[in-house]
Amino acid sequence: MAEEKKITTDEILLEMKGISKSFPGVQALKNVDFVLRRGEIHGLVGENGAGKTTLMRILTGVLPKDSGTIILKGKPVHIENPRHAQLLGISVIHQELSVLPNLTVGQNIMLGREPRSFLPFLVDWKKLYRASLEHLQRLNVDIDPRTPISELSVAQRQMVEIARALSFKADIIVMDEPTSALTEKEIESLFSLMRSLREQGISIIFISHKLEEIFSIVDRVTVLRDGALVGSMPISEVKTEEVVKMMVGRELGEMFPKDSVPQKEVVLSVRNLKRGKELRGVSFDLRRGEILGLAGLVGSGRTFVARAIFGADPLEEGEILIEGKKVHIGSPQEAISLGIGFLPEDRKAQGLFLGLPLSHNIGITGLKRLSLFGVVIFRKLKELALNFVNKLRIRTPNISQLVRNLSGGTQQKVILARWLSLKPRILILDEPTRGIDVGAKAEIHAIMSELAKEGVAILMISSELPEVLGVSDRILVMHEGRIVGEFTREEATQDRIMLCATGGANNG
Ligand SMILES: Nc1ncnc2c1ncn2[C@@H]1O[C@H](COP(=O)(O)OP(=O)(O)OP(=O)(O)O)[C@@H](O)[C@H]1O
Ligand SMILES: [Mg+2]
Question: Domains in the chain, start-ordered, CATH in brackets?
Answer without folding.
Answer: 2-248 (3.40.50.300), 254-339+424-508 (3.40.50.300), 351-422 (no CATH)
